[in-house]
Task: structure prediction
Amino acid sequence: MWVAFKWVLKRDLMLAVRGRSEVLTTLMFFIIVVSLFPLGVGPERETLAEIASGVVWVAALLASMLSLGRLFSSDYEDGALEQLVLAAHPLPVLVLGKIIAHWLVSGLPLVLLSPVLGLQLGLDGETLAVLIFSLLLGTPVLSLIGAVGAGLTLGLRGGGVLLSLLVLPLYIPVLVFGAGAVEAVRAGLEAQAHLSLLGAFLVLSVMLAPWAAASALRISLD
Amino acid sequence: MRLFSKDFWFQYASPKTFYPLAGKLIPWFAGAAVILTLVGLYIGFFVAPVDYQQGNSYRVMFIHVPAAWMSMLIYVVMCAYAALGLVLNTRLSDMMAAALAPTGAMFTFVTLWTGALWGRPTWGTYWVWDARLTSELILLFLYLGYMALRSAIDDPRRASRASGLLALVGVINVPIIYFSVQWWNTLHQGASVSLTSAPTMAATMFAAMIVMTFAFWAYAIAVALYRVRLIILERERHARWVVELAEQER
Result:
């Protein structure tokens, strides 16, 4: 089981490295969306610092949602997904491997890039650290929840738009507490409560999402 | 005793036997809905006293609170049917879930709309981004997502199972809405009615609210049964009994 898990993880990472452009597109999208806000709202430093956490979080949310389409679709098209479902190993474990690979490729780069964007928007010191930490806890949850939606909309016409309709409402709690953590620090409060809740979301979704995503895949491939 | 035998109840899990039963029940629930609504609105508008703080604007509560209850209850019932459909593979439970979704979405929308109308004179704003309002809005999105996913999939079997799974994932939101006023300090006030203590409002106000709740309940059942009959006809159109039914009605 462990071997199969590692194999899925390695295979997905290798595929992502070989097709670099897709990964970079997500990252570029993230940067461009964030840079649109100073142009639209105006370059006043105070205003930007006020909305910075929300802007970075919403951009991360959209970027991670856009990359979800890739999670299962190419495997679905070439039939590899069917082989995974038929494999002797428990499907949730294999799906978890795919989700982790997806996060390493599309979520982690956003986290690593976020301090630069935060600095551009006028965040500093502790707020920046909390922003990174909240994204580190929150983006895996986005990938995990998103996997359920990606499994359900597999191979449907207009799947992309439908996916956003299904997944974005479920993303809202993560957004509220992620951006809320940074806001709390800016207001001079502790971010611990928000971060603890994000951690709870992460634990809960690691536990439940792979099962839900696996049954979604079974339904879609039926 | 026929009423106590298992077969008597299980026979209604088949669309063929449920279809005429639903047809017989609809007039009763529809009639109850009309009468209870008239009674409830009469008590609410002519008998219940004017609130000393809010004046007459509080009367929208007689629609708002029952609609909010129904919006959550229908989602839970829908999930229960969806779960039954996923576990037991019964066609009818899934059809019931599908029939309930539009009514639930309607009640959620009514809740948000009447809440906005009430919030304007009382809070001075139509909308605040408060935990309960936001989570109710998410509930509306969940209903819409459920219906969108169902209509996007052509194969009825896959449609029912996929949307059922989605409904189950979304059910986490219902306790969040229900307890949001206790968990967060929000602008929305806490519940005035609970099962364990006496209601903190005048008896006539309480009566109007309860009557309206039962009216909405009867309405929801009547509409869901009506819709499920149409879904049965559509889904089972190749079955012999539907064909015979259509020939009889011609």
Q: What stands out?
A: Chain B has a mean pLDDT of 84. Residues 31-189+200-249 of chain B form one domain. The first helix of chain B runs from residue 6 to 10. Residues 33 and 218 of chain B are 5 Å apart (CA to CA).
